[in-house]
Amino acid sequence: MRGVAPYWILVFSIGFGWFILAPLVPVVASTFKVSVSMVVLLISAYGYAMAILGLLAGLLSAKFSVRASLLASSVLTSVGLLGRALSTNFAEFLAFSLLGAMAYPLAVAPLGSIAEAYLKKRVQTFSGITVGLLFLGMSFGSLMGSAIFS
After folding, report:
1. Residues with Cβ < 8 Å from 141, sequence gap 6 or more?
2. Which domain holds residue 130?
3. TM segments (predicted)?
4. Is the pLDDT of residue 119 over 80?
């Protein structure tokens, strides 16, 4: 089980980075002088990325390797979150947010392969823990986002 810890940290980080924006929508909108709907679009981008890139991510994971998919997801998450934190205008913030959103399907696509490798007899348990950690990251992101500016 220790071998899956980096994967679960990645999934948690994606959820965290996605939902830390939720309570900060008014702050981000006023900081970059854009409408609230533009900022909400960034939060929706993660869902859109999964819908649009999910099949492609599965294909890439199968064609190249699970490792390549997870490395790409890790790099996109790191660059996206760091770039978002250092953005000086909304165009940069948008670009880095979209980059980070592309990490989500790349992390989720190989879930079955990883589960088979580590928990052959309890694949559902692995999937449940993974999805649970994604949502736990979302909830911690929302809590931390609101704590930052309260």
Report:
1. 15, 16, 17, 18, 19, 20, 21, 22
2. 2-144
3. 7-29, 35-56, 68-87, 93-114, 126-149
4. no
